Amino acid sequence: MVSAAERLAANMNVGVFAKAEELKKRLWFVLGALIVYRIGTFIPLPGIDPIMLEQIFHQQGQGILGMFNMFSGGALGRMSIFALAVVPYISASIIMQLMTVVSPQLAAMKKEGENGRRKINQYTRFGTVLLAAIQGWGIAVGLENMSAGAGSAVIEPGLTFRITTSLILVGGTMFLMWLGEQITSRGIGNGISLIIFAGIVAGFPPALFQTFSSARTNAMSIGVVLFMLVLAVALVLLMVYVERAQRRLVIQYPKRQVGNKLMQGEKSHLPLKLNMAGVIPAIFASSILMFPLTIVQFNQGGTGWLNTVATYLGHGQPLYIALYVLIILFFSFFYTAVIFPPKDAAENLKKNGGFIAGIRPGKNTEVYIDYVLTRLTVVGAAYIAFVCAVPELLIAEYKVPFYLGGTSLLIVVNVTLDFVSQVQSHLFAHQYEGLLKKSKLRSKRS
After folding, report:
1. Whole-angstrom distance, CA of residue 332 vs CA of residue 211
2. What span, in angstroms and rounded, lies between the C-alpha atoms of 88 and 95?
3. In CATH terms, is domain 221-404 a member of 1.10.3370.10?
4. Whether the model pTM is above 0.90
5. Domain range summary for the chain, segments of one domain joined by +
6. What is the pLDDT of residues 227-240, one digit of tens each?
């Protein structure tokens, strides 16, 4: 005979997707929004010679242009209306987070709750428009200065082309920012992260094809290709393990009187991720180091000291790798301190009546959390530096596409884990609602 509990579990498993109509609609919305984004990456800017642009990008796509092209899903290489992608929004968001540490007004605004968050988001949007305008104008001027042989990438250069290109690129970035916000509110997961994720994943097949073509033409040995594939799988497994790793601090709440009853003390956990900074340190380090090389590329070779700096900061150069690792280590500690200040965590615990067993509330709790967080950040920073520096060596030595680099894999793994976690949360919520409904029906019958 089948027990009542088994029948209840069977009914829940069979009907879980039937009850998750909202989840289905959200997933379809995410898919539709990403399709719109991918279509936009193939709409070219007016006044661009596509043949000359392809030749130029083939020659100069190994600098920051290659990295931004990865984030834009190939839109920069095709110079489409989404060429800037969401890079200005990411930069503005990071700057606003850092400014909350420097500016007391923004720090107070951040603590105001929902109202403060809306104001900071509004400032982020304004910053996105400003950065997109500056970058759009820089791309327009850079395109006019770029040429391949006797041809130029711009058919009719001039002020009209610069203004038109800047306006279109700003509009494209703002549309993607709006689309990302719609995905976040009406879909599943973080919209901006999913847009970046879609662009990177779309570049995987061409990158793999390019790699295998190099092996077929003997430009790269079969052994090297197999080694890179094994290394990529090993890095993904390492990333999944580290990104899910946590140090849980046990939080104890004291006994309290509720009416005539004495409620027992409760226990909870304060989870501290091993990699609190995520992929931000790698993006910052790449952007800072590739900036001189980009200026040289836009100015067709550069002059004097700038050309020398670009030479030493080329991919695979010892100075580049050393600075890359140092900047990642620095921003790992700095960004972790920004997004999770131990002082705020200790104050929140004290306000809610919680404490760490054996640690006095207040200053002692702050020092203990800072001690644990520092040790975790040392391991997390070393992990980010390793998974980003090793692929950089392969990119420099074997001309591996950026899509197979550590930064791209790190983004893909983080976004995938977050997306799967949110889908599971929705499914668990539906299961919980089903249990509540069944328990209410049983209580009414009894």
Report:
1. 32
2. 10
3. yes
4. no
5. 1-219, 221-404
6. 878 888 888 898 88
